[in-house]
Amino acid sequence: MTDSTAAGTRMTADQPRFSGEAAAALARDLFGLTGRLDPLTSERDQNFRLTAEDGRRYVLKIANAAEPREVTNFQTRALAHIARTAPDLPVQRVIASVSGQEETLLPGGHVLRLLTWLDGTPLHAAPASPALRRSVGRSAASLTRALQGFSHPAEDHELIWDIRNAAKLRPLLDSVPEPGLRGLCTAALDRFDAETAPALAVLPWQVVHADFNPHNLLTGPAATEITGILDFGDMVRTARICDLAVAASYHADAASPLDTLSDVVTGWHSVLPLLPGEATLILDLVALRMVTTAVLSNWRAARQPENAAYFLRNLPSSRAGFEALAALDRAEAQGRLADTLAKEQP
Hints:
Elements: H1 6-12, H2 20-31, E1 35-40, E2 46-52, E3 57-63, H3 69-85, E4 94-95, E5 104-105, E6 111-116, E7 121-122, H4 130-146, H5 179-200, E8 205-208, E9 217-219, E10 226-229, E11 236-239, H6 241-249, H7 257-269, H8 276-303, H9 308-311, H10 315-326, H11 330-343
């Protein structure tokens, strides 16, 4: 993969750069809303929190022009699908403009949407606990279940973060500066080519969220349950089990990697029981998500140093978990996880 590929272009394209005044004018003219605008961080888009004069809050989201319009619509339609199939799931809703449009094309090819605001504490700022990790797994599985049967013409768009595309990371391995970490990444990709990729092909596939990371999840005051799910920008059709692997990969504590990520896995299993083939692959898929984080975080930080802190924010914990997981005896770890799942039959 090079910067000239479609996926590379989307990941490295400049974010929209609308001024606060311009964004306020869009909110007023398109949605009849006035109030305070505060910028929010985003990987590819430009987002504002809009606090209206009546106190209600929204997200004004300007999609990057490098993202195909059908991919933005893919996200819009998925949120509408979830509202019908699982209305109790804590996801955002898309609000139509005064003229009835859910998506508005802006100058430069950007697409504007207005989303409802979800309150809560970002998961990365909440104290970790087994109960909260299990809730992560249950929430991921509940969302995946809600998306069953959903289809869209853009569902097969290429996303380099999708674990099924792990082989495409090889040309970027030199972006990882530490030889030891780079060697672990190479070994994981070798196993992917030889064993994991063929096995994925025969498992259930569907549209999934694909980015259940702690910056996209909210929790309440008690910090025991997930109360909000954000950012459907990485949604894609892939092997269903990859969604669990993404979610679990952020919870492999270096001191006890198997036990902590097992909390997420068992939470998922209580909602969507793992098939034998899925259970066999989950640890390798978790490792591959960590490889993806290590490679792409370093690659993107080198190309956009002004955003390096944002790109690298998940890397330290991911690397520590990856190295700890790699140090385990693979067969023994898979056996322990299998025993845990057997005790958690739903």
